[in-house]
Specification:
alpha+beta; Heat-inducible transcription repressor HrcA; WH-like_DNA-bd_sf; 3-stranded antiparallel β-sheet
Length: 353
């Protein structure tokens, strides 16, 4: 995250309670919480005006926001992060939730893929969110890879390995991807994939990105020095190349360079999307809660991800289980469910090899 999250210890007792009540009220109802509501809930009896002042201070710190004029407050992503890190109380897992997930392992004749699918469905039903189950990674060299568009926010990656093993994984693609861009991604990967594992393939694409970026920098510098273009906001995140007077460029070579830069930028953007695709299949995260834009792969408006890894018999992380839902998830309830499900999947993988 670009912003530095304030520490909960930096708030005094009154500010901490007001902040906690606002976040808990929002997570419970999804509605802004006003000062009048808080006057009835706070341990310390204070006036609505005092509470409004405290809420304004919290808003100044970037922890709360006011969605409408004269309305109550809701937590920002920064505020939710501080709440999760410093104030979240994780409850015990409900017995009925545990039973529903345990039921998925009722059939001993299931193969692992079928069991994982049943566990994912149960997890989605229990949490009322979208479940995410990343399966154990296969380390054989890749023979062929395809991306299949399933809808605006769902796609399928088909991995065919040199040893004949085939894996199908559903994932949420980076925003803006089309069937055409996915075909281009697959074509590029297949051109360099043979003989490489997923990990090796990710590194090869990263090297290609660095190479293309250097070409862009070199061509852009030549254009800037010739006076045909300028850098806007150099050194900042909003830095970009601005072409001046394109209709008055003095030679065909300048126009050729501009076209090459445009192609290079397009190419670089597509390869970065490819890395995002592969990261979904290759990277195993630790136990984490991602809120909103903290993870760009799940940064759809108002989305959060609660994810926990699972391990095999050798205590090696081989996959992950997660739940995707709105930022106002009941984190205290969801966290133990995801944690328990990850442990269950780990035992399943260990017992069935």
């Amino acid at each position: 995250m670009a912003e530095q999250t304030p520490s909960i210890t930096e708030l005094n007792e009154r500010s901490r309670e007001v902040f906690r009540r606002v976040v808990e009220g929002y997570l419970d109802t999804g509605a802004p919480v006003g000062s009048r509501t808080l006057t009835r809930a706070l341990t310390e009896k204070v006036s609505a005006a005092t509470i409004r002042n405290v809420m304004q201070d919290l808003e100044f710190l970037g922890l709360l926001d006011s969605p409408h004029v004269s309305a109550g407050r809701v937590p920002t992503e920064l505020g939710l992060r501080m709440f999760v890190d410093g104030l979240l109380e994780v409850g015990e897992m409900d017995g009925q939730d545990r039973a529903r997930i345990d039921e998925t392992l009722g059939g001993n004749d299931q193969d692992v893929s079928t069991a994982l699918d049943r566990i994912g469905s149960a997890l989605s039903g229990v949490t009322h969110g979208a479940s995410l189950v990343l399966t154990p990674k296969h380390e054989a060299p890749i023979k062929h890879i395809d991306f299949v568009n399933l809808g605006p926010d769902r796609a399928l990656v088909v991995l065919v390995y040199a040893d004949g093993h085939v894996e199908n994984r559903v994932f949420t693609p980076p925003p803006g991807q089309t069937p055409s861009s996915m075909r281009e991604a697959a074509n590029f990967i297949n051109a360099i994939a043979e003989g490489r594992t997923l990990a090796e393939l990710s590194k090869a694409i990263a090297r290609e990105i660095d190479k293309r970026r250097q070409e862009i920098d070199s061509l852009a510098r030549e254009l800037v020095e010739s006076g045909a273009a300028i850098w806007e906001n150099p050194g900042e995140s909003s830095e970009r190349l601005i072409v001046r007077g394109r209709g008055n460029l003095i030679s065909d070579q300048d126009e050729t360079d501009l076209d090459r830069i445009r192609v290079l930028f397009d190419d670089l953007e597509r390869k970065q999307d490819i890395v995002d695709f592969l990261d979904l299949a290759e990277t195993g995260e630790g136990v984490r809660i991602f809120i909103g834009s903290e993870n760009k792969l799940f940064s759809l408006s108002g989305s959060s991800l609660v994810v926990s890894p699972y391990m095999n018999a050798d205590r090696k992380i081989v996959g992950a289980v997660g739940v995707i839902g709105p930022t106002r998830l009941n984190y205290g309830r969801i966290v133990p469910i995801v944690d328990y499900t990850a442990q269950l999947v780990g035992r399943l993988i260990s017992n069935r090899g």
